[in-house]
């Protein structure tokens, strides 16, 4: 699902409080709509524009207490 900083929340929203809150709300809605099983993932590295990028887990994972 790409639950990494810069992917979710999208990098452009990191500097706009209203956009960040909207992405947080959309993430919450998506999580709470799961009927039976919800699997969330994030990658430590991702190939982007021909180079490897190192990622941090999305802040939304900690906020939902899905990781510590």
Provide an overview of this structure.
- The mean pLDDT is 86.
- This protein is 31% helix and 12% strand.
- It has 68 residues and is α+β, with helices and mostly antiparallel strands.
- It has two helices and two strands; from the N terminus they run H-E-E-H.
- It is globular.
- A hairpin with a 2-residue loop joins strand 1 and strand 2.
- It starts with 16 loop residues before the first helix and ends in a 5-residue tail after the last helix.
- The protein has a two-stranded antiparallel ribbon with strand order 1-2.
Question: Layout of helices and strands, plus pairs?
Answer:
Elements: H1 17-32, E1 45-48, E2 51-54, H2 59-63
What fraction strand? 5-15%
Q: Helix amount, in percent?
A: 25-40%
The tally of strands reads: 2
Q: Tell me about the biggest sheet? A: 2 strands, antiparallel
Radius of gyration (Å):
13 Å
Helical run tally: 2
Mean model confidence by pLDDT:
86
Kindly name the structural category.
alpha+beta
Outline type: globular
Question: Which stretches of 5+ consecutive residues score pLDDT under 50?
Answer: none
Give the helices and strands as they follow along the chain.
Answer: HEEH
Strand order of the largest sheet: 1-2
Distance between the termini: 19 Å
